[in-house]
Amino acid sequence: MRLLIVNSNTSAFVTAKIADAARAVAAPGTDITALNGLFGAHVIGTRTELAVAEHATVDLLARHAHEADAVLIAVSYDVALRAAREMLDIPVVGITEAALLTACMLGGQIGVVVFGARVLPIYQELVRSYGLQRRVAGWRVVESNAPYAAGDQSQADALTVAAAQSLVTQDHAEVVVLTGAVMAGVPARLQDRIDVPVLDGVSCGVRQAELLAALRPVKPRAGSYARLPQREMSGVGDALAAQFGR
Amino acid sequence: MRLLIVNSNTSAFVTAKIADAARAVAAPGTDITALNGLFGAHVIGTRTELAVAEHATVDLLARHAHEADAVLIAVSYDVALRAAREMLDIPVVGITEAALLTACMLGGQIGVVVFGARVLPIYQELVRSYGLQRRVAGWRVVESNAPYAAGDQSQADALTVAAAQSLVTQDHAEVVVLTGAVMAGVPARLQDRIDVPVLDGVSCGVRQAELLAALRPVKPRAGSYARLPQREMSGVGDALAAQFGR
Amino acid sequence: MRLLIVNSNTSAFVTAKIADAARAVAAPGTDITALNGLFGAHVIGTRTELAVAEHATVDLLARHAHEADAVLIAVSYDVALRAAREMLDIPVVGITEAALLTACMLGGQIGVVVFGARVLPIYQELVRSYGLQRRVAGWRVVESNAPYAAGDQSQADALTVAAAQSLVTQDHAEVVVLTGAVMAGVPARLQDRIDVPVLDGVSCGVRQAELLAALRPVKPRAGSYARLPQREMSGVGDALAAQFGR
Amino acid sequence: MRLLIVNSNTSAFVTAKIADAARAVAAPGTDITALNGLFGAHVIGTRTELAVAEHATVDLLARHAHEADAVLIAVSYDVALRAAREMLDIPVVGITEAALLTACMLGGQIGVVVFGARVLPIYQELVRSYGLQRRVAGWRVVESNAPYAAGDQSQADALTVAAAQSLVTQDHAEVVVLTGAVMAGVPARLQDRIDVPVLDGVSCGVRQAELLAALRPVKPRAGSYARLPQREMSGVGDALAAQFGR
Amino acid sequence: MRLLIVNSNTSAFVTAKIADAARAVAAPGTDITALNGLFGAHVIGTRTELAVAEHATVDLLARHAHEADAVLIAVSYDVALRAAREMLDIPVVGITEAALLTACMLGGQIGVVVFGARVLPIYQELVRSYGLQRRVAGWRVVESNAPYAAGDQSQADALTVAAAQSLVTQDHAEVVVLTGAVMAGVPARLQDRIDVPVLDGVSCGVRQAELLAALRPVKPRAGSYARLPQREMSGVGDALAAQFGR
Amino acid sequence: MRLLIVNSNTSAFVTAKIADAARAVAAPGTDITALNGLFGAHVIGTRTELAVAEHATVDLLARHAHEADAVLIAVSYDVALRAAREMLDIPVVGITEAALLTACMLGGQIGVVVFGARVLPIYQELVRSYGLQRRVAGWRVVESNAPYAAGDQSQADALTVAAAQSLVTQDHAEVVVLTGAVMAGVPARLQDRIDVPVLDGVSCGVRQAELLAALRPVKPRAGSYARLPQREMSGVGDALAAQFGR
Predict the structure, then answer these.
(1) How far apart are CA E235 and CA D137, in angstroms?
(2) Partners of E113 in the β-ladder
(3) What residues of C are in contact with residue B25 (Cβ under 8 Å)?
(4) How many other β-carbons are positioned within 10 Å of the β-carbon of residue E145?
(5) Which residues of E fall within a CB distance of 8 Å from A109?
(6) How many angstroms separate the CA atoms of C182 and C15, rounded?
(7) Chains D and A touch (3+ CB pairs under 8 A)
(8) Which of F110, F134, F169, F172 to mutate to test the interface with B (most CBs of B within 10 A)?
């Protein structure tokens, strides 16, 4: 199974980290390609960068998804997830949606850790758009940029553990999700210090993408996810324009 | 007051229709400029086109909003509304949000008419994202492309009236919103045949934009709508890139 | 445009304060009349006083609204708002509803400041009745009667600023509404010390009333806001009784 | 136990019907007094009449409730219910709230029958204000004035049965509530023709009032239902004014 | 009226306490029988014990309910409540549901006190299953086993009072429910120290069961509570198997 | 990976059907054991049978789950799912939860087909307990027992297709879930005749169980899913009793 991972950011550091974590959890027959966005933000952290990344993501998928059996959108805002599901005939998974849905099966209410207060509302809107706010026990913000670079993570780890444990003891969370593609692989490192299961999006997303690829769902023939009709589209990359020319 | 109206579509016909309707309802001192998107769909009708329009909208606003006192996003999906509010220091209004909030003040539950079944779920997601689904009495779909071109509108009008009246009699709607920028000015033509107030987004949006411009709300200094920080951004138009360079 | 402002309280001090603040924000052509209730509470602060004010408000409107183009109910419980919308053929706006809906267009979740713990549940019921609880980030109570009299407001101001900032930093509010008609004009004084836009009901309500008057919505011919039918009504003021005699 | 039943309407016919039905279901030791409102609508059917009835109800209770152990508000809009609970030291029950809560204990989702489309939104707002909309399977409107007068009820009965059965078969209601004080005692007549339990507000309300009187709940010393403080109140009946003079 | 109280626990201490409290509040003509489960947990405190208790409860009811006019399930998880309502032709009440519904009639939002953090999520799921989460102001956990044995209760009482008062002052609860069958009769002892009405499930449940027995609701002939059809059932007690043999 | 599938029914026909379908979709290394409940209903179709099955399921798991790496509860009511998650140290998946969560990743609102009107409310309660009602576009009931036996399925298939297509065209469902363990493998047969992806619980459940087994979530050390404490438990099978003796 060929899994295309798109990181709509242009930061190669994060993409490499994602790819490593993804390969570490992928099933034996899964072949992973990880790509950066061709334009837009180095690391998305604002609503405006997200607006650009919506375009960058469908542009990138138009160029490369025809060689894949499934797509994982490895930006924790699950950018362009619904558009990608419409545009492509193969399953598309977002890392935050995947982590949340996987968490639902571990039982109980979910605690969510977010990196940076500025983006908290964006995550809350995302979870609400999935209709999953009912499953959220509470939110915690960790202010640290350490995970976005190599180097000592001990302080960021301590903050993350404290946030997670606070969700458990104060908000009665029974599972914790760490948002952010850079959290890929981090739960394994911190799990001993947190009393309930901890999940990250990339680990869950790779597996859910494999699952959906195996399930081979039919392309809808009705509704908002049906194949794109012929449409007039100008000023965009050829591959993307071609999506509307069938 | 200088009001910038952006229609993220590239269709000049719709933009002209919007501009005419906007000028017809604007207050005496309001000076209106209406612009099309520079790239993307002729008329947005799919999720993928919306993803492109997110970028096209912030690109357009980065180029032109510095000359305005308020912005009206005149695509009924309210595309890039939150990003625009973050990026700019002036009020930004979306036509569907404006119509819904205005409808709330006319009392009771709102019936919503949507043009085309394919886009119905997108509008439902939009209304839910505003936390306004509680105010919606029901939805009706009209299948007609007539409003997107000049020519006889009598058949489309009849379908629209029937949809609205069905919302009143079956779903007990007490006010009706016609979605779609092309519905600008249409309520006046149909009101006699519909038993409750009928609103369109452009008429409401122009007025709400004037209202917010007069209110002169402060630019947030905290949260997800605070001024953009300096960020690395590549491969986008200069004006847009410059937004991140302050 | 003739705007009738009714303060269902019998306190002339508050009404004068409202009228001043309203005139300060009204558009040039808006002619404002502000009236007190003829019976009931000096300043409404209990559910029982509200029950009386429901009657006092429709009584007052029956006497005076025929000379107006729109009505603003300037009691922050939006007392008799739905009844007034039914009884009259002109738009009616409530100050708290107006502030909340205006806040929705500034983006994000709303923090609400209430004066007095006793009335907090009443405001929470009000917001819920509008279907807007989803948009509320949190509530804060300020215990101070200072705003209801002339004199030094510095202590009340400090409490209000602290409440608002706590909503921003703790509950991630992205806009703050100060309830209470006596808060008219206060946001301008406090805005510098609060990191997100602060709104009061009178400033928003005057403008929304102007907006609706310009929109000239049709009187519903169906539903719970249709014109009053002939009904037997006894023991009330002549003007009110006459509303049922058409 | 002395139960005061207040019908905020001025119609003696309905009050007599209520009193008969109430006495038929009351426990042996329950002594029932049923009173009409002293001013306002003959039979409440609009929002404006409700606004007047809010006042009429607290006025009536201020005059008579001191001789009672519990109060039943026998207008199906549960008019002034919260105000009465605040003003009095004894339990107060509303007939629609009582029917809904009793229905909850019979299991499953509740079907609600309303008499007249005009008032349907008012009932929907009422149920929502109780936080009970989740328990409602669906609504049906019966258009008939027959129950408000003596005479043949067979046609109204047939419509009511059809509405109830439609709620069972179409909306999967597992219990049905007939709103309207005039439905007092009607379920017994129709139950054989409806496949799930049918309840009316008066029968449930009398019993819930007896239950609460036996429970003897303490008067709150905090919150919005605490005893009325001393307040300035003018232009109202002496008994009502006296409530604020303690 | 013959009331059967089933405590699905096997602990005779708690059952005796329940029976005493029930008889103290029951109406003169109410004859109470209280029974323990025949198998399962001493005192239910985990999800697994609840799963067993579901069976133990319907088993016990199949043996004994034919001699009763109503049933009270006196385990605060309201175990097997819906199954019992289906299986039997007489009313069945759960103590926590009864307390919550009774609390709704005392006005305002409900504070809920739970004994033991481990079971908090189970109660939250229960309240949500009743669609009553909207009425909950907040939750507090008391960690104490004292109520499950004879002996000094002063420390447990102090913790309970503190929890209840915190719900009043912090979460603005206007009525408090103490969960747990062992709280039967406790509110009377603590009410003086808590500012809003305090309810326990057994006191409310006995009365609501009497009320429903007097109401004599018809057995549903449709839906999920209709009489059990003939079904193949093996490996269970004879009385329970016989329920499926009609 | 060893997957234990428990069908809490005692019907061997359904269990065999489930096991066949499960093996058809399982990954190469997955070793499947499918077991029936030891007591209770032949095929669960009432609330009372479900109460018994709660016990039968934990009893069966206590006997057999120690030899497994994950458990799939293959009764579409997901009976005892939460208890099993608490009792065991390995992942436990319910087929309906698995189908719903998988459906969420295919985008849009979910249509749900239920077999038999009697059980519809039970499924609605289940979905609500997962907090997933927001994702449900609508429900359809098919009345047919054909799937529970060998023989011609063409009529049942036609009803199922009609129900699914009605969900697509009327309720705008964008994915359809067929509830019922006997629907295992049916989607493949019907997909050509339904315009959106169709899922069954067993196919999704096997894969989600494999996914969770690979993920190896830690056993919670806090909350309602933490390992069972030592408890007094009587009158149950030895294996089940032993779960409480650690």
Answers:
(1) 37
(2) E140, E178
(3) 214
(4) 12
(5) 121
(6) 9
(7) no
(8) F172
**Do B145 and B118 touch, CB atoms closer than 8 A?**
no
The CA distances from residue B124 to B121, B128, C104, F135, in Å, are 5, 6, 18, 12
Provide the residue ranges of all domains of chain E, joining segments of one domain with +: 2-94+204-243, 97-201
Q: How far is A129 from chain E (nearest CA, A)?
A: 21
Across the beta sheet with D175-178, the strand order is D136-142, D110-115, D175-178, D198-200
- pLDDT tens string, chain F, 246 residues long: the values are 999 999 998 889 889 999 999 999 999 999 999 999 999 999 999 999 999 999 999 999 999 999 999 999 999 999 999 999 999 999 999 999 999 999 999 989 999 999 999 999 999 999 999 999 999 999 999 998 888 888 899 999 999 999 999 999 999 999 999 999 999 999 999 999 999 999 999 999 999 999 999 999 999 999 999 999 999 899 999 999 999 985
Asked whether the beta carbons of residue C122 and residue D39 sit closer than 8 angstroms, the reply is no
User: Are A225 and F108 spatial neighbours (Cβ–Cβ below 8 Å)?
Assistant: yes
Question: Which amino acid would we find at residue E205?
Answer: G
Size of interface D-E (CB pairs under 8 A): 139
Residue to mutate among A46, A114, A118, A124, with most C CBs inside 10 A, is: A124
Structural class in CATH, domain F2-94+204-242: alpha beta
Size of interface A-C (CB pairs under 8 A): 6
Residue pointed to by tokens 């799990």: A191
Q: CA Rg, chain B, in Å?
A: 18
CATH number for the B97-201 domain, one of 3.40.50.12500, 3.90.120.10, 1.10.1200.10, 3.40.50.2300? 3.40.50.12500
The CA distance from A57 to the nearest CA of chain E, in Å, is: 39
DSSP per-residue string spanning chain E: -EEEEEE-S--HHHHHHHHHHHHHHS-TT-EEEEEE-SSEESS--SHHHHHHHHHHHHHHHHHHGGG-SEEEE-STT-TTHHHHHHH-SS-EEEHHHHHHHHHHTT-S-EEEEEE-GGGHHHHHHHHHHTT-GGGEEEEEEE---GGGSSS--HHHHHHHHHHHHHHHHTT--SEEEE-SGGGTTHHHHHGGGSSS-EEEHHHHHHHHHHHHHHH-PPPPSSSTTSPPPP--EESS-HHHHHHT--
Sign of the four-CA dihedral D9, D13, D16, D18: negative
Helix (H, G, I), strand (E, B) or coil at D144: coil
CATH number (3.40.50.300, 3.40.309.10, 3.30.70.260, 3.40.50.12500) of F97-200 reads 3.40.50.12500
Tell me the fold of A2-94+204-243: Rossmann fold (3.40.50)
* Touch of F by E (3+ CB pairs closer than 8 Å): yes
Whether B97-201 and B2-94+204-243 are alike in CATH topology: the answer is yes
* Degrees, nearest 5: CA angle B223-B227-B233: 110
Residue D43 distance to chain E (closest CA, Å): 25
Q: What's the gap in Å between the CA of A115 and the closest CA on chain E?
A: 27
Q: Which pair of structure tokens corresponds to residue E8?
A: 């699905």
Pull the structure tokens for residue B143.
């299948």
**Residue A76 contacts by C-beta under 8 Å, 6 or more apart in sequence?**
A95, A96, A123, A179, A180, A181, A183, A201
Torsion of the alpha carbons at C201, C206, C209 and C214, rounded to the nearest 10: -150
Q: What is the rounded radius of gyration, in angstroms, for the C-alpha atoms of chain A?
A: 18
Q: Rg for chain E (alpha carbons), in Å? A: 18
Contact between chains at F236 and E125 (C-beta distance less than 8 A): no
As a dihedral over the C-alpha atoms of residue C127, residue C130, residue C136, residue C138, rounded to 10 degrees, the angle is 10
Question: pTM (2 decimals)?
Answer: 0.97
Distance CA A143, CA B51 (A): 30
Interface touch C48/D83, C-beta < 8 Å: yes
